[in-house]
Amino acid sequence: MLKDLLKQNRSYRGYDESVRLTREQLLDMVDCARYAPFSQNFQSFKYVLVHTKEDCDKLQPCTGWARGLPHMTLPHPGHCPTGFIVMCYDNTIGPGVERFWKDVGICAQTILLRATEMGLGGCMIGNFNPEKVRETLELEERFRPVLVIALGKPDETVVLTELKPGESFNYYRDENDVHYVPKRPLDEIIIK
Ligand SMILES: Cc1cc2nc3c(=O)[nH]c(=O)nc-3n(C[C@H](O)[C@H](O)[C@H](O)COP(=O)(O)O)c2cc1C
């Protein structure tokens, strides 16, 4: 079950915009992140939930997509996320954001696994300007955006493939816009 969920939990860059996410759905995802392990149990992240069309339209231009496909502009027009969870470091909790970079991924993956279980999907977006996002969301100075999680009902196909020796690890798309993600085989990532 968990392995199936992990395989289904891909980075999606195309969504059905007619399926609008609700604040309740986003709350449910963040509720799951509360159970994630956290360095020294600081729990220094706070979350901004974005789901109205107006707010999604404001945040979308702050996000950068698919650096591995520089010739494409993704998401395609009319296929943008219908929700975002913006993870922020609360600088009043703990010694500074550097201490918590590992925790970012753990909380984000927890949120995405819950989204996948709900029949939704998303994409972690690290390619953004924290100041621009903070201004766009009108956040207090103490909140530093550390990761944007785009969410919605995926309407594109993502296929996992096994990376063969000598092949590139870059993801790619075919003429039908099917997105392929090569993963290194198990024996290649085991040192001993
Ligand atoms: C920390 C992190 C930041 C990422 N930032 C971006 C991003 O800014 N834009 C984007 O399109 N994808 C981003 N991704 C998605 C990766 O490109 C994606 O995970 C990778 O291509 C493998 O695909 P998969 O998630 O389907 O396995 C990010 C992933 C991670 C883990």
Proportion of residues in β-strands: 15-25%
CATH fold group of the largest domain: NADH Oxidase
Superfamily (CATH H level) name of the largest domain: NADH Oxidase
Overall domain count? 2
Distance between the termini: 27 Å
Structure description:
The chain is of the alpha+beta class and 192 residues long. It has two domains: 155 residues, 3-Layer(aba) Sandwich (NADH Oxidase); 36 residues, Single Sheet (putative fmn-dependent nitroreductase like fold). It is built from six helices and seven strands; from the N terminus they run H-H-E-H-E-H-E-H-E-E-E-E-H. Helix 2 crosses helix 4. The longest helix is centred in the middle third of the chain and has 17 residues. The radius of gyration is 17 Å and the shape is globular. The site of flavin mononucleotide has 15 residues, from strand 3.
Brief summary:
The chain has 192 residues and is α+β, with helices and mostly antiparallel strands. 28% of the residues lie in helices and 21% in strands.
Topology:
Elements lengths: L1 H7 L14 H11 L11 E6 L2 H7 L23 E8 L10 H17 L3 E5 L4 H8 L5 E10 L5 E5 L9 E2 L5 E5 L2 H4 L3
Parallel strand pairs: 5-7
Antiparallel strand pairs: 1-2, 2-4, 3-4, 6-7
The structure holds flavin mononucleotide.
The site of flavin mononucleotide has 15 residues, from strand 3.
Which characteristics define this entry?
192 residues; alpha+beta; 2 domains; four-stranded antiparallel sheet; three-stranded mixed sheet; 21% strand
